[in-house]
Amino acid sequence: MRYLIFILALSIISLAPFFGQVPIELSNLTNNSTMDYKLFWDIRLPRVILAFFAGGILSLGGLIFQSLFKNPMSTPYTLGVASGSTLGVAFAIVFGFSSLLSLFGFLGALMTVIVLFTLTLKLKSYETNALLLVGIALAFFYNATLMILFYISDESQSFEIIRFTMGSVDVVGLEHTLPIVVASLALLLLSLSYKKALKLLLTSNEYAYLKGVEVKKVNTILLIAVSVAVGVCVSLTGPIGFVGLIIPHIVKTIQKKSAEQLMMPIFFYGGVFLVVSDLIARNLGTNTDIPIGIVTAFLGGPFFIYLIIKRK
Amino acid sequence: MLQIKNYSDKILKNISFELKPNQNLIILGENGAGKSTLAKVLCGITPSSCVKFEHQNLNAFSAKERTKLINYVPAKLSIFDEYITLNEYLNLSRLHSLLEAKNLLKILELEALKNKSCQSMSSGEQQLTMLASAILHNAKITIFDEPTANLDPQKSRDIYSLLKSNIFQSKIIITHDLNLAHKLAYDVMYIKNGYVDFLGSSKIFFEEGNLSDYFGTSVQKINNTIMVNL
């Protein structure tokens, strides 16, 4: 059964770039003078790659945050990284840096990471919950600042900000997917290298400490790594909510293994989930794509609730 | 070997003592007197510069070195991830013991629970699990926080025999179980309102006159067994 699902998922992501509102002639894919060639290599394929790796980062990030904070509701957005990124993008839109949206988005996320990191140094050893509260407070502060930007922006700028916050995996050109591919693979490898420490942390911080884990150091490294990867992700896709919360829970409920053994599957199925969501978003038959955030919530929400009810 | 000097915080007041090599210690005291607080200071969970191991500050040891020296078994098993099994938990605990987790499971008759999730075990099973984990960790000093709480008489007895055996190196045992304390016959420390009120041999502490000083009429010694008067 597990293999069947895996093979199905694999075929979905490999077939995904071939489907869209405009059908593609397979024989044109090697002929770079055709429209189909451009459509496939410059738009569809980069889009699928972006969706897959964004889903991977958000889901794995969710798993790691839930493990470190020992809180099943934590997601990479809990610490305000996404809000920081959104604020950066809104700033760029309002103050005329529209060509540098991704850069500003990333800087917003980075600024949040630096604030959080400075605060971690001030916190005592084991107060991850305090950090969580700081993150939530930070998110409120960012939202208030965002409101100011909305207030002083004109109509088209406001629309552009709103559209960004809905999330999208639009990208043109394979080379633009490079940052997210690098960020997500780096995060995956780093997390896998901390597998043992993470498993000890999944019991309790005290137990991990007694078994020789440098709790604060490991927490800080993983926290920063996830935040930076999410920063890269959000600056490209906008804040796509919900993925980081539901995918770890769904995979855990189905596979019934402790979190550190599920890093690969959660990364993979998180990616598949966003690819499928995007496939639906751009094939519903309307003239424009539906924002992907709407699809993830519509698709994931009911299934998530079903799983929670079924398991009790 | 393990030394704490002039330690004070919100609960504990001016605590000093030294645990010598091969010495075992029982810590007694009312609820809220500061016993578990002291345990967390001694094992480094609450960092302090007042704790030394063989004249070197405990926080100066590397994390790996420290695991060889000291381990703490809390009163309750706390595990966040609901899918961690007994077997996985014990394998995580195995640091300095030559014993294999699977052999220990056989000895403690826990084999049937091996693939059960730790969270879904009964409190007695969890208590045994933590003890097994401490055996596999095999630190020079192990601090037990109420090892016989939540146990049925049979299991209390099993745990008494484990504590009495020489499977652990040095032990510090926090307990309310006076009979256990009396039978183990280790040196006793009595903590009252954050102060060390008594530190001495088991023999002196469990003299009848002394018992009524510390516990009033609530405790009686009958046939060399300490009984709680209800």
Key words describing this protein structure:
A: 312 residues, mainly alpha, ABC transporter involved in vitamin B12 uptake, BtuC, 13 helices, 72% helix, globular, B: 230 residues, alpha/beta, Rossmann fold, four-stranded antiparallel sheet, 9 helices, 12 strands
Could you give a quick summary of the protein structure above?
The complex is a heterodimer of chains A (312) and B (230). By secondary structure, chain A is mostly helical. Chain A has helices at residues 2-15, 35-69, 81-94, 101-122, 128-152, 155-166, 178-193, 195-201, 205-210, 215-237, 243-255, 263-281, 292-311.
The helix content of chain B, as a percent range, equals 25-40%
CATH homolog superfamily of chain A? ABC transporter involved in vitamin B12 uptake, BtuC
**Form type of chain A:** globular
Structural class of chain B: alpha/beta
Can you tell me about this structure?
The complex is a heterodimer of chains A (312) and B (230). Chain A is an all-alpha fold and 312 residues long. Chain A has a single domain, classed as ABC transporter involved in vitamin B12 uptake, BtuC. Helix content of chain A is 72%, strand content 0%. The model of chain A has no long low-confidence stretch (mean pLDDT 87). Chain B has 230 residues and is α/β, with parallel strands linked by helices. Chain B has one domain (2-80, 138-228): P-loop containing nucleotide triphosphate hydrolases (Rossmann fold). Chain B has a six-stranded mixed sheet, sandwiched between helices. In chain B, helix 3 (86-93) packs parallel to helix 5. Chain B starts with a strand and ends with a strand.
